[in-house]
Amino acid sequence: MDRQVQNKTVGIWGRSVHTEPMGKASHDAVLDLYPKERSFVLTRSATAKILIYAASSWGSENETSWASIKGANPPSLNAGFSLLQVQLL
């Protein structure tokens, strides 16, 4: 851990901590702008909990395109049907 701090690397945990507040901030901003509309936030990197705020997670590593988003829909829907986005108490 000390070596990571010295090298100023974020690591996997840091990325997880970083993506969730970004998704929530985007979700909240959409709700502020359009309070009577259902929000839709598409995020590229996410943890399971991000699906509370984001409608879909898309894991395109090579390019940003409609084709890669289309390819990510089946796994995203599967995660939704599996209740991956439900916050367990």
TrEMBL record:
UniProt cross-references to Gene3D superfamilies, sorted A to Z: Glycosidases (3.20.20.80)
InterPro entries xrefs: Glyco_hydro_31_TIM
Domain Glycoside hydrolase family 31 TIM barrel per the UniProt entry, residue ranges: 19-82
Keyword annotations from UniProtKB, A to Z: Glycosidase, Hydrolase
GO biological process, one term: carbohydrate metabolic process
GO molecular function, one term: hydrolase activity, hydrolyzing O-glycosyl compounds
Family: Belongs to the glycosyl hydrolase 31 family.
Name of this chain's protein: Glycoside hydrolase family 31 TIM barrel domain-containing protein
